[in-house]
Amino acid sequence: MSDRITILLDSDLTKQLRQIQAKMIIQTEKSISFSQVLNLAVKEGLPKLKSKASD
Protein backbone atom coordinates (compact mmCIF):
# COMPACT_ATOMS: atom_id res chain seq x y z
CA MET A 1 0.00 0.00 0.00
CA SER A 2 1.30 3.45 -0.84
CA ASP A 3 0.91 6.65 1.10
CA ARG A 4 0.39 9.93 -0.69
CA ILE A 5 2.65 12.60 0.76
CA THR A 6 3.96 15.96 -0.33
CA ILE A 7 7.68 16.64 -0.16
CA LEU A 8 10.00 19.39 -1.31
CA LEU A 9 13.15 18.33 -3.15
CA ASP A 10 16.11 20.47 -4.05
CA SER A 11 16.10 21.16 -7.78
CA ASP A 12 19.47 19.45 -8.25
CA LEU A 13 18.06 16.25 -6.71
CA THR A 14 15.00 16.42 -8.93
CA LYS A 15 17.22 16.79 -11.98
CA GLN A 16 19.33 13.79 -10.99
CA LEU A 17 16.27 11.66 -10.34
CA ARG A 18 14.75 12.65 -13.70
CA GLN A 19 18.00 11.67 -15.43
CA ILE A 20 17.93 8.29 -13.71
CA GLN A 21 14.28 7.90 -14.71
CA ALA A 22 15.09 8.65 -18.35
CA LYS A 23 17.92 6.09 -18.39
CA MET A 24 15.69 3.45 -16.82
CA ILE A 25 12.96 4.09 -19.39
CA ILE A 26 15.48 3.75 -22.23
CA GLN A 27 16.95 0.55 -20.78
CA THR A 28 13.64 -1.17 -20.08
CA GLU A 29 11.47 0.45 -22.76
CA LYS A 30 8.73 0.58 -20.11
CA SER A 31 6.98 3.42 -18.38
CA ILE A 32 8.67 4.27 -15.08
CA SER A 33 7.13 6.90 -12.85
CA PHE A 34 9.04 9.51 -10.92
CA SER A 35 7.58 7.97 -7.75
CA GLN A 36 9.08 4.59 -8.65
CA VAL A 37 12.52 6.16 -9.08
CA LEU A 38 12.22 8.10 -5.83
CA ASN A 39 11.10 4.97 -3.93
CA LEU A 40 14.07 3.04 -5.34
CA ALA A 41 16.50 5.80 -4.34
CA VAL A 42 15.09 5.94 -0.82
CA LYS A 43 15.15 2.14 -0.41
CA GLU A 44 18.77 1.96 -1.56
CA GLY A 45 19.79 4.92 0.59
CA LEU A 46 18.05 3.88 3.83
CA PRO A 47 20.63 1.25 4.86
CA LYS A 48 23.42 3.83 4.56
CA LEU A 49 21.44 6.36 6.56
CA LYS A 50 20.57 3.78 9.22
CA SER A 51 24.23 2.84 9.67
CA LYS A 52 25.17 6.53 10.06
CA ALA A 53 22.40 7.01 12.61
CA SER A 54 23.60 4.06 14.71
CA ASP A 55 27.20 5.31 14.91
Write the layout of secondary structure elements.
Blueprint: H1 11-28, H2 34-54
State the main characteristics.
55 residues; 0% strand; 71% helix; mainly alpha
Describe the structure.
The structure is a single chain. Helix content is 71%, strand content 0%. The chain has 2 helices and no strands. The model has no long low-confidence stretch (mean pLDDT 95).
Tell me, what's the shape? Answer: globular
Number of separate strands: 0
The run of helices and strands is HH
Which percent range fits the helix content?
over 70%
Number of helices: 2
Radius of gyration: 13 Å
A few lines on this structure:
The protein is mainly alpha-helical and 55 residues long. Helices cover 71% and strands 0% of the residues. The mean pLDDT is 95.
